[in-house]
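User: I'm putting together notes for a lab meeting next week and I want to include a structural view of one of the chains we've been expressing. I don't have a solved structure, so I'd like a prediction I can at least talk through. The sequence is below, exactly as it appears in our construct file.
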Amino acid sequence: MPITKNDNQERKYNAQVVYPIISNGDTIGTVILMSKEANQKMNEVEKKVAQSAATFLGTQMEI
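Assistant: Thanks for the context. Below is the predicted structure for the 63-residue chain, given as structure tokens.
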């Protein structure tokens, strides 16, 4: 599913990881990693990076 849209309806990004930022049980945002490389798939490293970033941001936003 494309996240971004351009005027030419071209796909700029070939792979993506989307992870929600959760604070106090509510979703307050999203961490998105995108790749422009052809024939590239996101692997476990990119998934863990997005998860770590989202977890860190979620804990920073808690009151």
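A couple of points you could mention at the meeting. The chain is about 30% helix and 30% strand. Residues 3 and 58 are 22 Å apart (CA to CA).

User: Perfect, that's what I needed.
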